[in-house]
Amino acid sequence: MTPSLRRLATVRPLVLTVALMAAVAARGAAQSAPATPALPDAKTLIAKADQAMGGRAAMDKHTSLHQTGTISIAVANITGALEIWRAKPALFVQKQSLGMLGDISTGFNGTVAWGNSSQAGAQLLDGDAATEVKNNADFFADFYDPSKVKSAETVALMDFEGKKAYEVKIIRLNDSESRNYFDAETGLRIGQTSRVSMQGQTIDQTAVIGEYKEFGGLKIPTKIVRKLGMADVVLEVTSVEFDTVDPSAFALPASVQALVKKP
Q: Does the pTM exceed 0.90?
């Protein structure tokens, strides 16, 4: 055997041995690495949240909901009153009294989505603004209804405001999209990101939802912090009453009715 062949015979087994060792090491590393746990199905998480709040059946026992509370914007030194009326199947009015900014109201009477403010006056809503108000009007908006959802997907397990939470992307049939955050321990929804309409503009909003308390057999959040980039808007609920709302609460304000009658 020539010297070059002898060197080849010596080197090649060494190359094969190194390759084999690398393969074995890689396989061992793969076997020892902890497997990433599969994310729970979105529908399972939503069902758990529904149950944690008391269940859709508990909500279905009621015909209307009246909430009162406060609204504050610390950066602007504004504190005011908040009042919300809801009724089956999709009636809604929200009124905010903001001191020097005046009153701001929105509503949906089953047909017309509207807004009315001391500064801008009355208007009929359309586009994203109307979609947002109609979503709020749904008496069962906090509960999962597959007939109103196009898709629901669990995206990640992550930290949300200091808590472990599952992020679930939900797209409704009207194509409005939101990211919902469910507490990994309690199952309750503790946050949501979505696009909202404010003063004719659509912006991103993160809502931090918490301080659940029991009313009428249901757990209802009593504090919501809406993070809007330029400011945090804090909504705090002080009272919740079921089945006391008069239907007249959803009548269109005269200024809005005048717009509906216009040709």
A: no
